[in-house]
Amino acid sequence: MLYIPYAYSWKNLWARKLTTVLTAGGLALVVFVFATVLMLSEGLEKTLVDTGSADNVMVIRRGSETEVQSTLERLQAGIIETLPEIATGMNAERSVSKETLVLMTLPKRGSDKPSNVTIRGLSASGLSLRPQVRLVQGRMFRPGSSEIIAGNKIAQGFKGAGIGETLRFGMRAWMVVGVFDAGNTAFGSEIWGDADQLMQAFRRSAYSSVIFKLADPSVFNALKGRLEKDPRLTVEAKRETVFYAEQSEQLASFLRILGLTLSVVFSIGAIIGAVITMYGAVASRTREIGTLRALGFRRVSILGAFILESLFLGLIGGIIGVAMASAMQFLSISTMNWQTFSELAFSFTLTPAIILQSLAFALLMGFLGGVLPAARAARLDIIEALRSV
Amino acid sequence: MFFFLKLIVRNVFRQKLRSALTAFGIMVALIAFGLLRTVVDAWYAGVDAASASRLITRNAISLNFSLPISYESKIRQVDGVTGVSSANWFGGVYISEKNFFPQFAIDAASYFALFPEILIEPGERKAFLHDRKGALVGRKLAKAYGWNLGDVVPVRGTIYPGTWSFVIRGIYAGARKNVDESTFFFHWDYLNEKLKAIKDGRTDHVGIFFVGINQPQRAAEISGAIDRVFKNSLAETLTETEKAFQLGFVAMTEAIVVAIEIVSFVVIGIIMAVMANTMAMSVRERTREFATLRALGFGPTYIASLIFGESLTISLCAGILGISATYPLVDYVGAKFGTLFPIFVLARETVELALAAAFLVGVVAAIFPFWRALREPVADGLRSVG
């Protein structure tokens, strides 16, 4: 069988630049929306999955979905603290942190708009439980003092949270003595201080959660069963990675469903653009098609050539769309996660899988736009096509 | 004039498939635009419904901290305050997390005096006030879950542990369209009593106080006066108007709202490209005709009127069809969202914006093809084979 060269399809697009640019532009915008949404939910997931470590176990009160809602009495926290499964560090200290979490409304820098920031009180080994966190400015807070350290995203984004500044709450002034970088994790949107000092300031008698590192990660399931059956405790134990993934479930699925619905609806417009362009291409080249058929090219070849042209169109749109979306990587978004009711910053993350999915989506739109016009081209009667003006 | 209009209509119908597809595309885009703007409006619904004669007093640290119930009488003493009521966010789960609706433990007797927009039958109101385990639910909420008076509704507490059951004693309606009809109210007394029974440390506290004032112009002054009463206490307060309080909520999720707003304009951009393409193709096919017209002595204004007229005819017809289709769709989607977006109504402003967008699409799409048609020398145009 005789194939029509690829260049025929390619050069036809080039011949009518304005139409090609407009159609590809429409496709590119749809791909842009599609890719951005995937990048957003990828970024959100990455942030929360990176936040947890697989060896760490998070214990909260049964029935509470977030750390903020949870309360663990000192007695219960004490029982968990003495579990034999907990790993010991280099200086024989136990890798366990009894933590207290409160939300505080702070004004954003610049806009003065209020947002909820998480303040976490930690025990001495709290920092070593999170290897992804490191101090980048200043020093660690001293236990037993009114000192706090702020995540880099909070230090930049909120009034009074920069190094050397003070925040007033719980009838005390708290000095920010350090700024920590928590990489791409949710800890970057938190403020840390001494657990006992914070509990006193907020007049709390109970912790929010207990986090510990397992010496042997494989015993998790047995330990979970034991903790949850213990009559002295009303707790739930989860791997930290699972806990944080669940925290973003609603927001991530909201973004994904909204975004994908939009992409599909928007793609109708772009596909229509491609259909119009391709019908136009077929109509204006009727005589050409007749000539090709007369030269011996089969119907299938004609069909292939026009579908290929449409696929090229989709590919151009896809590449432009992905290029535009990749510029979004420099942006980061900060919004309230309504499951935890607190501020969470995350960025658009472009992965090879998203690039492939976006290009596939663009090609699909191109194909859907080109298939009917290509079928019409293939069905044309040779004699009539040759006679047409 | 008649001849001119006829020419435009004939031109529109010359490529029936193309015109129909373009019009369909514009319709879909405008419907998407209308729905997205409605989602954004739904986000701000609480702000629009806020009353100017109510202030909200909350703990200055954040909403997660409560205030002692003893503050109520102190707030009542502040000059300009006409009434005080309170509410606690309960945050319970009905069957599964998917069934989200707000639940508040309220001081029922004073609450309805402050919220005249909540309409209840006198009989149901009495029944609710007299039943300690009673609940008052919005019309929309009752409809969504098929609740009737007398039904027992179990709610699993996330903030307050345990399973709580309530008996539906009343179903309220909103006095205005923008009143949230999907809230679940029950008695704060019942919550407090149960907390005392299980020795929970959070007894005798409320989440927020609603403060009624009769002179809205004094809102700032009264807010300041209330906050001064509790300055340097264990629970300092922050008082603001209901509108400011609601705006604060919206501001927290602003990034998402902004993203939806941007996206709603992207769809207009997409359809603009499609429409411009349609016009570019139409004009290119008719290069010879336009050259003929110009050779006969028709000026650029006439050519422009033809091109812009055709473009606007398609975009405005599609616009009107699209907007008419948006109305039932908004109702449908609003019903699907259920209690997640209590207020889901197509605003007049959205309709006007959509019409303006259709007009803009029509104009912008015609500019470039028109410019091309004029630039082409008449002699070349006559020679063109399309």
Quickly give the structural class of chain B: alpha+beta
**What is the H/E string of chain A?**
HHEEHEEEEHEEEHEEHEHHHHEEHH
Overall, the morphology of chain A is elongated
Count of individual helical segments of chain A? 12
Helix and strand run of chain B: HHHEEHEEHEHEHEEEHEEHEHHHHHH
Find the count of extended strands of chain B (DSSP E, 2+ residues).
Answer: 12
What's the mean pLDDT score of chain A?
89
Assembly type of the shown chains?
A: heterodimer
What class would the helix/strand composition of chain A place it in?
Answer: alpha+beta
The first-to-last residue Cα distance of chain B is 29 Å
Q: Please describe the biggest sheet of chain A, giving its number of strands, its sense, and whether it closes into a barrel.
A: 10 strands, mixed
> How many domains in all of chain A?
2
* Unreliable stretches covering 5 or more consecutive residues of chain B: none
Number of helices of chain B: 15
Could you describe the largest sheet of chain B, including whether it forms a barrel? 10 strands, mixed
Please compute the radius of gyration of chain B using only Cα atoms.
30 Å
Task: Write up this protein.
The complex is a heterodimer of chains A (389) and B (386). Chain A has 389 residues and is of the alpha+beta class. Chain A has two domains: 6-49 and 249-387, no CATH class; 56-213, no CATH class. Helix content of chain A is 50%, strand content 21%. In chain A, the strands form three sheets. In chain A, strands 1, 3, 4, 5, 6, 7, 8, 9, 11 and 12 form a ten-stranded mixed β-sheet that branches. Chain A has a two-stranded antiparallel ribbon with strand order 2-10. Chain A starts with 5 loop residues before the first helix and ends with a helix. The mean pLDDT of chain A is 89. Chain B has 386 residues and is α+β, with helices and mostly antiparallel strands. Chain B folds into two domains: 2-45 and 254-383, no CATH class; 61-235, no CATH class. Helix content of chain B is 58%, strand content 16%. Chain B contains 15 helices and twelve strands. In chain B, strands 1, 3, 4, 5, 6, 7, 8, 9, 11 and 12 form a ten-stranded mixed β-sheet that branches. A two-stranded antiparallel ribbon of chain B has the order 2-10. In chain B, helix 1 packs across helix 13 (300-337) and helix 11 (254-285) runs parallel beside helix 14. Chains A and B meet through helix 2, strand 3, strand 4, helix 8 and strand 13 of A and helix 2, helix 10 and helix 11 of B.
